[in-house]
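The authors assume throughout that readers already know how a fold can be written as discrete tokens. The format is easy to grasp once an entry is in front of the reader. For illustration, here is how one protein appears when written out as sequence plus structure tokens:
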Amino acid sequence: MEDNDQRARHFLIEMTQALGIAPEHASHVRISGAGALPSIFAVTDFATAAIGAAGAAAREFLQSVSADAREVCVDRRLASLWFGFSIRPQGWSLPAPWDPIAGDYRGADGWIRLHTNAPHHRAAALAVLDVEADRPAVARKVAQWRIEPLEQAIIQNKGCAAAMRSLAAWAEHPQGQCVAREPLMATRATEDSGAGIGPRRAARPLQGVRVLDLTRVLAGPVATRFLAGLGADVLRIDPPGWEEPGVIPEVALGKRCARLDLRERSDGVRFRELLGAADVLVHGYRSDALEGLGWSAAARRAARPGLIDVSLDAYGWTGPWHARRGFDSLVQMSAGIAEAGMSALGKDRPTPLPVQALDQATGYLLAAAVLRGLTVRAQSGRGFEARASLARTAQLLIAGPRGDRSEQAIGSAVDADWSDAIEANSLGPLQRLRSPLTFGGTTLSWDRPAAALGSSPPSW
């Protein structure tokens, strides 16, 4: 248990220091529970630390506005389970999380992963391969390609793919070197200022805080779900036609979900009105995409002085891949995680982490950044900006202490892990895991169940 705590605290200190959170708040994070997810990497300690960092940020914010110091406790078992799936449908089944074509394929000189969950990403990959949407046929075509040229061809066709690289190859790669030089979380207070933030209730410290959510699977929605669990009013905006059926019951908890097409003038006007009344904007567009829609950082600040503006991307904010499309499973392939697992465990195919820990950990770090920004605004009235990337989160895990594979495996959730409450989700009733974090004895709680995308009007 002592080694567990030391590993988790190593990551916790790295995370809170990167955010500028005062050390005293990390020291008031208590860790309970036992066991670990099976991995050569310290995934459970990483999960515990990421949720603990968000808790430490919440403690700092509450103390700054109410002089109320609360103990934070993270259960490492529940933290690990929340990094997987937090719901158990009652009498119905979730849609398949992956498109049938998505997955790992052996090329002529190694492995490559195709990410085809979005229809346009699938079409891009199939067009490069010149093949129908049939998995065996795709496998035969991929086998004829060397993996790096195939990766590049799919990326150039606006698709998503990642060749499997080793940790050493990623460390030598131009993008890997750029990511290693970036901060875990780039933060700064801005010169513009907005309205102050008054005293808060410990049970719902973010009640009345408006969060505009422009994120999709998976890190950004995890961040805004956490903020909703502290009482924030979260309004998620998606374009017409976008769906995430496999994860919306998981990540839309506590939010209202609306649709706007930011390419349309009238919807752009409406977005400006929403942004002007928001406290926080969380967005996961590629680094050049939001600006291409007319919403540069300067434009966002002009619409809302004092804005807390928190963003993420996949492969980092500098380097040749800074605008590359990417997801957790692709970054694990690029950054050497899947190859390290395969080599260390003697497997014959890529062996990624047991959960999408890069997405999940980055999500809690984004939530912590929002809370840090609220602290800055409460203290000075100034706005705040923060940026994170999945690749830089991966670097933290890779460089940290390794897991202890002799620890008892956490395994699947058991009845005691689940809340007794039945949530009336839009797809059907479900149970959700108990909160992994307590805050002065208060658990995370949500004011509304997860709702379908587009089920609410675009208004506060």
User: Anything to note?
Assistant: The longest strand covers residues 186-193.
